[in-house]
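== Protein entry: sequence and backbone fold ==
=== Local backbone shapes as whole numbers ===
==== Amino acids and backbone structure tokens ====
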Amino acid sequence: MRHFLFALLCLSVCAGCSKQSSLKPVTNTSVTTSHLSVSSVTSYYVNTSTGNDANSGLSATSALKTIQAGLNKTTEGVGATIYVAAGTYYERLNWPHSGASGAPITLTSYNGGTVNVDGSTTNSSLIPLLNVSSKSYIRIDHLNFTNDIQAFAKGIYIAGSGTDVQVTYCKITNVGWTTSATAVPSSTDNANPLNVVGTGTGSYNQIYIGSNQVYNCNTGYSEGLTLAGNVEIFLLENNIIHDIPNIGMDMTGHYSWTGAPAAVNYARSGNVRHNTVYNCVSPVATSGGIYVDGGAYINIEGNTTYGNGVGITVGCENNNYNADNINIRDNLIYNNVNAGILIGSNQSNGKVTNSTISNNSFFKNVSAGGYDGEIDIQNTDHLNIINNIVQSRSNVVVIALLNYTSTNLTMDYNNYYSLSGTSGTITFDWGGINGQGYYSLANFQSALGLDAHSTYALPGFTTATLPTPNLHLTSSATACINKGLPSFTAAPGEYDIDSQTRVQNSRVDIGADETAY
């Protein structure tokens, strides 16, 4: 079933994203997934305490000793399941074979035991704790990967080309370029806890990464979870990523180091949903909890991001390329160090194009203080900002940053609130577009024609107190309930932050939470 729905993802994303010159939501869909039904496969058993690699491995009583021995028992194109008993396995693993459609090769824990793959005492010549090179129809499930400290350390590293790869319920910790919590990295200091890299003319596709945890990894200039190069048709959901001293999740493109041809060298056609990302802050650069860097046709929806450098960032760091058709919708974004969202390329000949920020709840970001907005804009074209709650801890709500341009921008049906409690002192800094600032909502509306139907009022959150706000709407949230864009129609598969129907009455609510009121 999951295999079929991944195919639908590509069709729905490509069909749903188009240039938006008028005020309407783009209609990408998310993807519902379910576990595959698989045909009968051979089972192998591994037990570090009682096993022996000379055994057959065909039963728990004749278990193999090492995980690598279990993987080596598999055959190319033939499904198998390797059950690993609880324990710590001091190994670095190489995945030798692909499974088959409907009959994957699965590596999983036995009877729910805790399995730790530990690199602390092993030969680092095989740098990844688990290396997967151009393998398809594989499952990595309920395993922990820990203790790889070296230059260019890697946890789970999947590279090349292939299809139907799933990583579920894994924990990855203490994968880093150094053990020092205070070391400041240079651009050559990197570690990758969980990576999928498409390196060739054929893509890595139908990638599912769900319900994993990645934390306490010193990644340097790299990220906690990365999709790079020729990667398409992916779903990243229900992951928890935290305490990474840089970006939490990154869907990236147009970097020559991947080796992929330029025309397909970017992550595309995917959903990033219902993840929780927090405390991802770089000591040297802007770090988004969730980042799209040169990707295309990607939905970022229903996520919760807080305590990061920036809640969500969308850009393109490589000149002469764009990030295109990115939907940021139905997210909770609060108490990040700088802006809630930073969108737009920082390159002279690059933009974020045909993208939408809709039905998000921004709440008291810019915890570092100083002058910054809840929403910061760099180089964009055809950006829609609609149906969002924007509550600032200062009086600054939106900044069009200096030295950038934003063309064909639309904004409407947003609800603002700020420190002063009055719409007469709110700041829209338009320095990057026309060199002007607008210091009341009415002045901004009349001068530019933007936000014509937007309002200024307390949103009506259940608990508007940091550090743990409840950003659901109460029944008295009259400024936001049934006050969104009247013509709004939810995209196929689009839901609110709680996976509830996005439009429950005749009109959508403003913000990430849809009420029944």
Notes: The radius of gyration is 23 Å.
